[in-house]
Amino acid sequence: MKRITRTKYTRKCPICSAQFSTTAPKKICCSEKCQHLRYSNKVILHRICRECASSCETTHINKLLCSSRCYRKQVKIKDNNRKPTKKYSAILSTGNLGAVGELQASVDLMLRGFHVFGALSPASPCDLIVAMEDVVIKVEVRTASYQRQDGTLSYSYDGKDYANLFAVIYDGKVYYYESNKTSNEIRDLLIKLQMLDVKPTETGDPSTKSDM
Fold first, then answer.
1. How far apart are the C-alpha atoms of 178 and 210, rounded to whole Å?
2. Strand, coil or helix: what is 194?
C-alpha cells in the first residue's frame, strides 16, 4: 500500500507571532486558544506578574498576577497587613454592632458638651443630630473594619453625603471626619473643640485619620 505524504506548511501565528508547522492548508493559528482569540477579537497582553516577576499573557486588561498561586500569596500579604477590629466584632451581629457604635459616639459627643438626639428610624439619612452654640450637626456613625498600614481606617461609604460629620468607631475609640456637607461654621466649631486637625478631602471619602 502506497503511503500518502502530506505537505507541511510553515506559518506564523497572527495572534502570538509564534512559528509553527502544520499539514492543514487552511490552518492559520498555532493553537485553539489563539484561534478563539482571533475570532473573538481579543488582544493578548503581555504582563509581568506582580508577585513572582515572571512574564505571562492575558486578555484581561486588569489582570496583574500570572496564576492562582500568586493570587493567594497576594491575598495572604494583604490580610497580614490589616489590623482587624478585635473587640466584639466576632460575637455581635451587624445590627447590634452598629447600635453599639451609635451609643459610643453619643457618649463621646455628650462628654464634649453636645446635645445629642438619636434617629428613631433606621431609614433616617443620618444616625445622630447634635447641637452646640446654635450650630446643628448631622452625624453619620460608621464602624471601621480594619486599619491600614498607613494608619487610615477602612469603613463602608456609599459616596453620598447626607451628614455633616462622620463618627468612625474603631477599637473602642471614636474618630471624626468631615464630609462634603461640612460647612465653614461647623468646621470652625469642630476645630475649636479639637475634634478635627486635618483638611477636608475633595472626594468626600475621609481617608486621613483624625485622632481625638
1. 10
2. coil
- Provide the CB-side half-sphere exposure for 194 (13 A, CA): 3
CB 4 within 8 A of CB 14: no
Give the residue among 145, 149, 144 at the shortest CA–CA distance from 81: 149
Q: Any residues with CB less than 8 A from the CB of 29 and at least 6 apart, and which?
A: 13, 14, 15, 35, 38
State which amino acid sits at residue 96: N
Report field, pTM of the whole predicted structure over 0.90:
no
pLDDT tens string 180-209: 888 889 888 888 888 874 433 333 344 444
CA-CA distance, 15 to 140, in Å (whole number)? 53
**Structural domains for the chain:** 9-81 (no CATH), 94-192 (3.40.1350.10)
